[in-house]
Amino acid sequence: MMHMLLNWLLSAVSLMIVAHVIRGFDVTSFGTALIAAVVIGLVNATLGLFFKIVTFPLTIVTLGIFWIIINALMLKIAAAFVPGFTIQGFLPAFFGAIVLSLVNIVLKALAGSARTSREA
After folding, report:
1. pTM of the complete model
2. At 104, is the secondary structure helix, strand, or coil?
């Protein structure tokens, strides 16, 4: 349970960081980022999974790059459902998907190393 809460908080922090880095990718508050993180997770678990399965051959041909486009579309769909979370156009969604993935990887790695050093 604690692991899920930590991932949720890190995802919200990642959204706030992306909103500061990418022009046209806007999150009004941390509360909005928390809600958006949940909605993004739900959209990715449902529609995202479906689209990734259906477009798998195209993903193989593009060496995985097409998944960035799917992630950008999932961000746009999530933004349509969350007030205060807006993405103005496809390019901010595309670059936001890339930066969001990278920031998530870094934050989760840092949190994992912090947890490992605490356990030692």
Report:
1. 0.86
2. helix
Residue 118 is encoded by which pair of tokens?
């605490």
Supply angle C-alpha 61, 64, 70, rounded to 5.
110
Q: How far apart are CA 78 and CA 35, in angstroms?
A: 10
pLDDT digits (tens, 9 = 90+) for 70-92: 999 999 999 999 999 999 999 99
Residue 16 to residue 52: CA distance in whole angstroms: 26
Alpha-carbon distances of 37 from 14, 16, 113, 114, rounded to whole Å = 9, 10, 23, 22
CB atoms inside a 10 Å sphere around CB 10: 18
Report CA torsion sign: 88, 26, 80, 4.
positive
Q: Output the six-digit token pair for 112.
A: 């994992």
